[in-house]
Design a protein that fits this description.
Keywords: Coiled coil, Membrane, Transmembrane, Transmembrane helix. With about 180 residues, the protein is mostly helical. It is about 75% helix and about 0% strand.
Amino acid sequence: MKDNLDKIFKNLEGSFDIEEPTIGHFNRFEAKLNKTVAAPPKKGTNLFTFIAIAASIVLFFGIWIGSSFSNSGMELAAISPEMQETESYFVTVIEKELQIIEKERNPETEQLIKDALNQIKKLEKEYQVLTLELKESTEDQRIIYAMISNFQQRVDVLQSLLIQIEDFKELKTQNNEKFI
């Protein structure tokens, strides 16, 4: 270990800064330090600090109370690890389907996509109602089944849309072949 330190210092031997500061440097530095220390504290700062702390405490309690009485519901993932896995699966499938649909978006398919996304929005609103119901009654299996069914309906709508888009593309290709 000592040999390593000796090597390091030997390699750095000529690169150390050994220059002395200019004359009066320490006096100028000390004057700057004294200048900043000499400023008296303002009395208004204490009142402002007190008000800021009080407002922070009130805000914290407001957020805490608001979150405990909020209208947000309970997700499937909060029920059990199996439900979390189920919800994660459906969310992943829906996201993948939406990515595929976005790639197929063009002026000709726009209306089909818009209609399907409106159906998805309705199903998402229904799901939000189900989350509120689940928060009220976590033991009701019908609500859990309805939530899973809602996810499945969303997947079905998206898959149906993809089939319609493929049918539309195929029909368009056939029509183009007839005119050639």
